[in-house]
Amino acid sequence: PLVPEYIESRRKDLIKIREALEKQEFTEIEDLGHKMKGSGKCYGFEKISMLGHRIELSARQKDILEIQRSADRIQDYLSNLKFE
Asked: Average pLDDT of each block of 10 consecutive residues along the chain (84 residues)?
């Protein structure tokens, strides 16, 4: 029962990342990526952890393109998840 809530929270995080990217608030993006990196493994979503880590590192480097790519990949991944 916690998984759908977790997924919805990650969707909200992606919105926050995109908003922060528009304002170039890289510290916020780094924090959100770090949170995804840590929580993904706990819920069994290794891909979210890996891409969250990539977002975290890209935010430190202010690599806008890589942040966008990683956020898009998470969005695609979340869109294709099925729950029973």
From this structure: 90 98 98 96 94 98 98 96 73
